[in-house]
UniProtKB/TrEMBL annotation:
PANTHER family: DNA-BINDING TRANSCRIPTIONAL ACTIVATOR DEVR_DOSR. One of its GO terms (biological process) is regulation of DNA-templated transcription. This is Helix-turn-helix transcriptional regulator. GO terms for molecular function: DNA binding. It comes from Streptomyces violaceusniger. Keywords: DNA-binding, Transcription, Transcription regulation. The keyword Cell division does not apply.
Length: 430
């Protein structure tokens, strides 16, 4: 590891620092995944990169990182076996004291052999450099960095708010079953137990998904919403009609995590506000909500979520404000429309912008680090892994690591496609 690698790491955009750090360390420390827990990071305190161990779909969690933190903090670096992504694997933990809060870096190594002292010292020095660099970015953040940090914080806050809503909704559903007068005690207890078990399983699954989820198709996001609402309405005399987005409504359109989480949280809050709605009908008797319709439609630049009921039509925006519905929509630059017609029901529409499409990058090779460009140049010359390793004086396993990163960053599936891009953009060598 040399100063060139260090410069390549700290010059990277926020989202690329961890992958480039992983690539730099791979030359001396073979690993399959890397994760960090950095309280001073202006973008996100927890990030992971690579191929985590465990069952497919599992991900490294902050709880697993926190379990290693005390021993790593005490010793500076620590090597041993620990649980990562639900599997016990060999790891190397590196702690940095470059800032008051400290920062933890964990590498899931591919070998049980202890890492040499020289490589440990170099890894800790590079991690100290990255930590200090991020601390300076947080203290002297430019507008772009602040905006990215606020967006990440908003996404985390929305996910947390959705979990809070889910807890509240589960408790409300339990109370609704237990208070129901049309059920005997034995039936009510059985339904309450079934509802509690289902809600607990869903909350745990939702927590795991939200820790790893970055974006998801609109159709899948709606399906998650529907699956969470059905058990909550069990035991209530309310019909749930669903209008999921079809192909024409943008079912395959990918939604960012903050948009999907906000849309789900808003719809859930609106539904429960409608169920709490009280008002008389024409004969003066209470007119309860018997039917709720939910529909999503994804256009070119926005997601429109509509919730409509057949209740008394007395729902007001103040009731939604108490559940922070308008605040959540406004946080993403959206708008909320409430149309309540007495004795006919209420329609609430939340429109959330998806943001302008990202401009195409002029040079697709800009995402690659210095060493990755060297490996790509060798690929473009038709050389195999062993030849590349000999030419660049690195191991074959490191070459494989770089090749995998190159394919992922360039969005291609083969060495040939990567080589073609290299020739197109002038990295093919002479």
């Amino acid at each position: 590891m040399d100063l060139t690698a260090a410069v390549d790491v700290i010059r990277a955009p926020l989202g690329e620092i961890l992958p480039r750090l992983s690539a730099a360390l791979s030359e001396t420390i073979a690993h399959r995944a890397v994760a960090e827990l950095s309280g001073n990071c202006p973008h996100s305190p927890f990030k992971a990169h690579g191929d985590p161990p465990g069952d497919p779909g599992t991900a490294i969690t902050t709880a697993e990182m926190a379990a290693i933190a005390p021993v790593a903090r005490a010793e500076g670096t620590w090597q041993g076996r620990a649980w990562m992504a639900g599997a016990e694997v060999p790891v190397l933990a590196v702690h940095s004291d470059a800032t008051a809060r400290g920062a933890l870096l964990v590498l899931v190594t591919t070998e049980e052999t202890p890492v040499p002292a020289g490589a440990l010292a170099a890894a800790r020095a590079l991690w100290d450099l990255v930590t200090a660099h991020r601390d300076r970015m947080a203290a002297e953040a430019v507008p772009g960095t602040l905006a990215q940090s606020r967006a990440a914080a908003a996404a985390r806050a929305t996910a947390i708010a959705e979990l809070v809503d889910a807890h509240g909704a589960a408790l409300s559903a339990l109370l609704g079953v237990l208070r129901g007068r049309d059920l005997d005690d034995r039936t009510a207890r059985a339904r309450a137990v079934d509802l509690a078990v289902s809600a607990l399983a869903e909350l745990r699954a939702r927590t795991d998904r939200d820790q790893a989820l970055a974006e998801e198709p609109a159709g899948d996001a709606f399906a998650r919403l529907a699956a969470s609402l059905r058990p909550e309405l069990r035991g209530l005399s309310v019909r749930l009609d669903l209008g999921p987005p079809g192909t024409e409504e943008g079912a395959d359109r990918l939604l960012a995590a903050d948009v999907a989480n906000t849309a789900r949280a808003v719809v859930r809050a609106v539904v429960h506000a409608m169920l709490d709605e009280q008002g008389p009908g024409r004969d003066g008797a209470p007119l309860p909500v018997r039917r709720v319709h939910i529909g999503w439609k994804v256009g070119e630049g926005e997601l429109r979520a509509t919730v409509r009921d057949d209740g008394p039509g007395v729902l007001r925006r103040t009731a939604l404000d108490a559940r922070r519905v308008g605040e959540r929509v406004a946080a993403l630059g959206g708008r909320l429309d409430v149309d309540a017609v007495p004795e006919w029901g209420t329609t609430v529409t939340a429109t959330v912008p998806l943001g302008p499409p990202q401009p195409a990058r002029e040079d697709p090779l800009d995402v690659l680090g210095a060493r990755e460009l060297e490996v790509l140049e060798q690929l473009a010359r038709g050389r195999r892994n062993r030849q590349i390793a000999q030419e660049l004086h690195i191991s074959e396993s490191t070459v494989k690591f770089h090749v995998a990163n190159i394919l992922e960053k360039l969005g291609v599936t083969s060495r040939g496609e990567a080589a073609a891009l290299a020739h197109t953009w002038g990295a093919g060598g002479s």
